[in-house]
Structures are given as structure tokens and as C-alpha cells.
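Appendix B, record 7
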Amino acid sequence: MCVTTHHYPDNPQIGGRVAIDLGTTNLATTDRGVVIRGPTHQKHYDTQIDKVKSKRDKTCKKNSRRFNHLSKVVRKLHTVKARKTNDSLHKISKDLSRRYQVAIVEKLPIKRMSETEATGRNRVTRNSCIARFIDMLRYKMHKLLEVNPAHTSQVCSLCRHHLEYKLKLKDRTFKCPKCHLTLDRDQNAALNILQLGIVRLHNLHREDVSIVDIEPGMWLDIDSRRCLEQAMA
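C-alpha cells (predicted):
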């Protein structure tokens, strides 16, 4: 016996907006403090690829049968790595698109970031696939806003105090010496990105406006203000 019914699931989309601070330590941190880890398998595959390449280059004559076989293994490892990465990014971007309609991110110079002299950081930046993740958000979200990334990590999201020193990558907490706000550095940056996005959505400033050029805290929504109040409590 077969029973057929009409079922209309609730739409999980809340129609709101989310500000996202993108990075390499974590793929994304939202203005609500939600940390999203990116794909974690790349390091394993990079190790395997390096081992096979080292074995091929040290023990095999170029264009020999063994050399060509190991080259084929390297290409296959790259393919599997890319497929798993795409799968993870699709799942993350789909979940965000089901929850929100508008995403606000920094307009980052991805190509320049991956071509610096720090070769170790280059591989980490390429493995994070930030540009690919942004492209997925662009066609899955109702709207994607890219804002000026200048000073978002150096400015307090509550009082707009600008730190006199530059935070290092190992510094994971933002501490404001003026209003004493203590917050995860990525969430603080996401809150600044949110404020930039809100003024852009309301056409209150030019497109390249920096966080230091808008009034402190006045564009935060209720949820963001609550996050800051809890952090200061």
C-alpha cells in the first residue's frame, strides 16, 4: 500500500543579513560569533602529494614508465583534493544561503595575498579557497555585498578606537584600551563589516567607505548590540 501526502516544509530562510570575516585559520566568522571551519583535508593530501613528488623526482628517470605512473598518481591526488574541497564549500555556502538573504564580506585582494614572499602562507591561502567560496555565495545568496577591508581588524566595533599597533596572526583576541571591549578578533572584524554593509545597503556612503569614516555603533542591529553587551558584561 502506498500513501501520498502533500508536505510543505517550513522555509528555513530568515531573510536577514550576515556579515562574514573570511580567513585562513577559520574559513568564516559571522557577526554573531559563529565560527565556520573550512575544509580540513588539504594538509593530508598536500603531504601525500609532496611524498609522491619527492619519490618521483629522486628515484625515477624523467619520462620513464615509473615517472609517468607517479605523475598520474599526483594528478589523481590533486583531483580528489579539489573535489573534497568543492564539496565542503558547497555545503557551507548552501547552509548560509538557506539562513540568510544578504551576505556582507570584505573585498579582498586574493591573488595578491597568495603571491607574497611567505611561501608557507601562500599554500594556506590557496587551500582556504576564499575566492571560490565568495563566488559560491555570489550566485547562491539573494545579494552579496563586498565592502572596504581597510582597518576592520584594527578598529573597535563599539567605540571605533583605532589600535596604535597591528595585530599579529597569533593574536586571536581584540582588546580595546578605550572602552575595554574584549572580543574574538574575527567577530570584531565581522561586526565592523556588518556596519559597513548596513550603510551601503541604505546608500548612506560611497562604495569605498572605510570603517573609520562612519559613526561608531549607530548602525548595529539588535542582535549585534546584544553580542557586544554580553562581551562587556
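Remarks on this record: Confidence is low (pLDDT under 50) at residues 5-14. The first strand starts at residue 16 and ends at 22.
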